[in-house]
Design goal:
Radius of gyration: 20 Å
Strand content: under 5%
Mean pLDDT: 81
Number of strands: 2
Shape: globular
Strand order of the largest sheet: 1-2
Order of helices and strands: HHEEHHHHHHHHH
Low-confidence stretches: none
Helix content: over 70%
């Protein structure tokens, strides 16, 4: 459970903090409308992720607004859905609906990597999967990120429009991947229901499959490419946040931002 769920928790926390700092910094200097620079792409992906997951778990979609900025509430888009109480499948669905932007955003980021740099991505994943002496998920994911970085972050690429277009699109998606407070609140009851069979699976796994080393290797092989994308997103968004702080330091604070 720690290997599968832990990285998602850490990623959600970090991406939320980066998003908050970025939007606050821009809003203080350039006003609330500065969020449009990334929201035009990131918000529709965020809301579509919710909508798709609602469909998968049988929820009724009452209203879907992909991008409709509201300066009074600070809301950029929303999905309203309804479900049947005491239906365990639909209740559990609230968990996945809540974290859907992390899943949908990760898929889009993976597609962007394949679209812009298919060769380096394939080479990095194959090389990292060949390293069978390290069962640690973070170690394997970091190996993939290092190998991709060596191929992508080259002086020749830094001088191309493709590279900076890629960075911008990654930041648009990554800075709107964090679930909102209402997303987390809606997932609470479903998470409680889901925890019971999850713990039962863990116990059965420990009893009937005691070879934990082999299990660790298998899990790492499957999940390391996905979490490599998440790790790369954190690094790229962190770099973008640093650049924004440096570039906006020459502009005075003109707006008071609350919340």
């Amino acid at each position: 459970l720690s290997v599968v769920l832990g990285p998602w928790v850490v990623f959600a926390f970090l991406i939320h903090q980066i998003e908050r700092l970025m939007q606050r910094r821009l809003a203080e200097r350039f006003g609330w409308k500065s969020v449009m620079w990334t929201g035009w792409l990131g918000t529709p992906i965020h809301e579509l992720s919710h909508a798709v997951m609602c469909r998968l778990f049988g929820h009724r979609l009452d209203e879907v607004v992909l991008f409709e900025p509201d300066p009074e509430s600070g809301r950029l888009g929303y999905v309203r859905h309804s479900y049947r109480r005491h239906n365990w499948f639909e209740e559990v669905g609230n968990v996945f609906i809540g974290i859907a932007p992390l899943i949908g955003g990760s898929i889009v980021l993976g597609l962007l990597l394949w679209l812009f740099y298919p060769g380096p991505v394939s080479a990095a994943i194959e090389a990292a999967q060949g390293q069978t002496d390290d069962p640690r998920l973070l170690g394997r994911a970091w190996s993939i990120v290092q190998l991709m970085g060596q191929e992508i972050m080259t002086p020749a690429n830094l001088a191309t429009v493709r590279f900076w277009t890629f960075i911008y699109l990654v930041f648009c998606v990554g800075s709107h991947m964090a679930p909102s407070g209402s997303d987390y609140r809606g997932a609470g009851r479903g998470a409680l229901i889901l925890s019971i069979p999850s713990l039962l699976v863990v116990v059965l796994f420990a009893v009937f499959y005691p070879d934990t080393v082999a299990a660790a290797y298998a899990i790492v092989d499957v999940l390391s490419p996905l979490f490599a994308v998440l790790l790369l997103t954190i690094l790229l968004c962190g770099l973008a946040l640093t650049l924004v702080y440096l570039l906006t330091s020459i502009f005075p604070v003109r707006y008071k931002v609350s919340g």
